[in-house]
Amino acid sequence: MATMKEVADYAHVSVATVSRVINNSGYVSPDLEERVRTAMQALNYHPSALARSLRRQETQTIGLLIPQLDLPFFSTLAHAVEHMLFDMEYRILVCSAEEDAEREQAYTQMLIRQRVDGVIMAPTGHSAVNLRSLIDANVPVVLVDRDVPEQRVSKVLVDNVEGGHLGMSHLLAHGHRRVGIIGAPAHSTSVRQRLDGAQRALREHGIHDVKVSLSANESTPFEFGYRVGLEMLARPDRPTAIFALTDVSAVGVMHAAAHHGLRIPADLSLLGFDNIPLTSYIIPELSTVGQPIREMGEIAARQMLRSIAERDARPETFTLHTRLIERQSVAQVPAKGA
Length: 338
Description:
Elements: H1 4-11, H2 15-23, H3 30-42, H4 49-56, E1 61-66, H5 72-87, E2 91-96, H6 101-113, E3 118-121, H7 128-136, E4 141-144, E5 154-158, H8 160-173, E6 179-183, H9 189-204, E7 211-214, H10 221-233, E8 241-244, H11 247-259, E9 269-274, E10 287-290, H12 293-309, E11 317-320, E12 323-325
Parallel strand pairs: 1-2, 1-3, 3-4, 4-5, 5-11, 6-7, 6-8, 8-9, 9-10
Antiparallel strand pairs: 10-12
Helix pairs in contact: 1-2, 1-3, 5-12, 6-7, 8-9, 10-11
């Protein structure tokens, strides 16, 4: 393998000039930079990433700490983050806390020991201490999807209250008055905000007696949606519509409806939240409140790069909007309905 000195000799420049080009440090004229890069290509020279990181006191690694990697929302988010940062020559350490504060703490301490350049984090509902550990270790942090309001770090969030209100208003506009709400996990700030928005829409229509079930994290969202769906749909006054606060919970409700011999949307209208890719492929296609998952990941990645480059930069909060995606799972209540 060629050496830096061989590259310098080939390009007829000094070793210092080659170093400035490789490390993007100091001024090099466009002509000299082009000669150096041509020499690097001709000699098949690849600078040592380890050596570069030691000089910069960087590791070129970013921690991505999420609650559950096996959920489509978080896997889609992780893919967006990884794809963008890989193109910027960073490598990602993906950590799944499984909605467990102790597991999250173990990963937090590991990322600090690994000297990652920053952490993008979708915290569990118990994360103030773990987040504080990263901040105290001077690790740049960007929160995504879930908020820890008392901490001043950059955040990429969605207006979940808006989304909850939008979704419930859609069901009410279709004549539904007996509505069930299913969400998981209960400690997620996103789920609680969606519930707040949905309940606000119900109050605006004078409706107060609504069945609400939030998981205490004893099961996966799919299992929870299925189990609670079975219970709700077995009642004599079963709801004519269910608003599942995640798409995965909505798929669980679909299976519960099939167990009871109910057709969607003829016998039960169903609305999800997230717009994961699966929703447009199941039958019937699931109407849902969509959030820009990939855009969230890309903004979080860009903000992380900014936080690394500008350590004293003022934290920013990005709040993205939701949109209603109408497909095939919501129908008008018949005249004899609720």
